[in-house]
């Protein structure tokens, strides 16, 4: 790279901007992520390219694409980011009081129907704290501190993560009375012929409840798919089909539980990075949620 003959220093903030542009592909998205204006982001990117002595991106109608120099710089910048994040975990994971910010990630229905009440009581008990809830079905990265605390339906595989089984979720097969009047109760002996299902999207076909449904009712037609459990329940409440949703969610809607059908339940796992195990506010939140949520929901 040409940067060796330049004496200008490169700031970590500008490298963060470079990484966000490389990941998002646009200056606008990167600026929004970093809470800066687009003109400011543009000026900082140009200054970084001057310091490097080479263009880092090609500006195209489809967005910003890395140049050869940008590709060469990306791995180094990501390594630096990993070091900075690890340092932050060490510094901020060393105790501290019950104030500051914690970022929690969970799926939409789990946050709304399982965590919301204990989170509300936690906020009342600890008014100096801010809990940021990221509702997302994706598996956020604890290594990169995309979240401090994550709830998910599969156990964590990395040894750096401290994890525990948090609760067990019961599922049920539901239908609206109007649907049952038109189609009758689903009978496994009939393999689901003439019935309509509402389920998870195709990317989640390996989910236990969908596997159960395909095995028991192979001839049922899939009419609607969504990665939102709450949307599945709402579509089901509109009479559009049968749906397998968590009991704690389905029982909140004007739906009938098909009692003779028993979809498999699933465990929910809680996890956080081991570097944060001594962080008092994180321990307090984990203990509060564990006390406020039953062993089975």
Cα Rg: 24 Å
| Mean pLDDT over the full residue set | 85
Q: What topology, given as strand order, has the largest sheet? A: 4-3-5-12-6
Q: Bin the strand percentage.
A: 15-25%
Give the topology string: H per helix, E per strand: HHHEEHEHEEEEHEHEHEHEEH
Task: Let me know the largest β-sheet.
Answer: 5 strands, mixed
* Low-confidence runs of at least 5 consecutive residues: 1-7
Number of strands: 12
Helix content: 40-55%
Structural class: alpha/beta
**What's the end-to-end separation, in Å?**
57 Å
The outline comes out as: globular
What oligomeric state best describes the polypeptide chains here?
Answer: single chain
Our count of helices gives: 10
Kindly describe this structure.
- The chain has 297 residues and is an alpha/beta fold.
- Helices cover 41% and strands 22% of the residues.
- The chain has ten helices and twelve strands.
- The N and C termini lie far apart (57 Å).
- Residues 1-7 have low confidence and may be disordered.
């Amino acid at each position: 790279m040409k940067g060796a003959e330049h004496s200008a220093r490169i700031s970590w903030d500008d490298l963060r901007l470079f990484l966000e542009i490389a990941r998002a592909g646009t200056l606008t998205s990167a600026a929004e992520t970093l809470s800066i204006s687009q003109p400011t982001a543009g000026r900082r990117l140009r200054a970084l390219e001057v310091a490097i002595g080479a263009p880092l991106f090609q500006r195209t109608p489809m967005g910003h694409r890395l140049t050869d120099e940008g590709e060469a710089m990306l791995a180094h910048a990501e390594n630096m980011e990993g070091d900075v994040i690890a340092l932050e975990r060490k510094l901020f994971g060393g105790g501290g009081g019950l104030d500051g910010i914690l970022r929690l990630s969970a799926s939409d229905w789990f946050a709304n129907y399982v965590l919301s009440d204990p989170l509300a009581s936690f906020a009342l008990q600890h008014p100096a704290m801010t809990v940021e809830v990221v509702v997302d079905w994706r598996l956020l990265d604890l290594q990169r501190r995309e979240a401090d605390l994550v709830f998910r339906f599969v156990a964590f595989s990395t040894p750096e993560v401290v994890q525990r089984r948090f609760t067990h979720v019961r599922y049920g097969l539901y239908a609206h009375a109007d649907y049952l009047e038109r189609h009758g109760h689903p009978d496994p002996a009939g393999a689901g012929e003439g019935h309509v299902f509402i389920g998870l999207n195709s990317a989640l076909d390996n989910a236990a409840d969908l596997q159960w449904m395909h095995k028991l009712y192979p001839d049922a037609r899939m009419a609607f798919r969504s990665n939102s459990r709450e949307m599945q329940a709402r579509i089901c409440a509109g009479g559009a089909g049968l749906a397998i949703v968590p009991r704690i969610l389905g029982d909140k809607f004007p739906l009938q539980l098909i009692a003779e059908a028993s979809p498999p339940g699933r465990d929910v796992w809680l996890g956080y990075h081991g570097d944060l195990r001594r962080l008092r506010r994180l321990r307090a939140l984990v203990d509060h949620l564990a006390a406020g949520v039953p062993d089975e929901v």
